[in-house]
């Protein structure tokens, strides 16, 4: 794995600010420690994994950390999505999914229907499939 570009605190805060400005909600950090924890989650995962994780798993760590830690007063799912996608794009990746699929993935993550590991697997599958003929839903086994 090449040198990775991580999301700095200031970038995450700017993303959150823009999401609130564009889509509404309350501005502000609920807990700085939870934000720091969420943003360091993928780096810790990389440092302490028994085998090197793939990019989808690292991206899932950002998403899961922000959604579950809920560091912002409002806009946590939106911010998590943009932080995750920014991380992937900065490192030469992206996820191919419809707007509806992305929305459903983040809702499922927030309500606990989708685990961090399932999100990483889903992101990897969607990246590998790219353009596909039928929608793939996270948690669905594409081999069945």
Description:
- The protein is built from 6 helices and no strands.
- It is globular, with a radius of gyration of 15 Å.
- By secondary structure, the chain is an all-alpha fold.
- It has a domain at 33-129: Fic/DOC protein, Fido domain (Four Helix Bundle (Hemerythrin (Met), subunit A), Up-down Bundle), CATH 1.20.120.
Number of helices: 6
Q: What would you call the shape? A: globular
State the separation between the terminal residues, measured CA to CA. 31 Å
CATH structural architecture of the domain at 33-129: Up-down Bundle
Instruction: Round the mean pLDDT to the nearest integer and report it.
Output: 84
CATH third-level topology of the domain at 33-129: Four Helix Bundle (Hemerythrin (Met), subunit A)
Largest sheet: none
Pfam families: Fic (PF02661)
Protein name: Death on curing protein
GO molecular function: kinase activity
InterPro entries: Doc, Fido, Fido-like_dom_sf, Type_II_TA_Toxin
Q: What's this model, at a glance?
A:
By secondary structure, this protein is mainly α. It has helices spanning 9-23, 32-48, 55-69, 76-90, 99-111, 116-129.
Describe the structure using short key phrases.
mainly alpha; Four Helix Bundle (Hemerythrin (Met), subunit A); kinase activity
Layout: helices, strands, pairs:
Blueprint: H1 9-23, H2 32-48, H3 55-69, H4 76-90, H5 99-111, H6 116-129
Helix pairs in contact: 1-4, 2-3, 3-4, 3-6
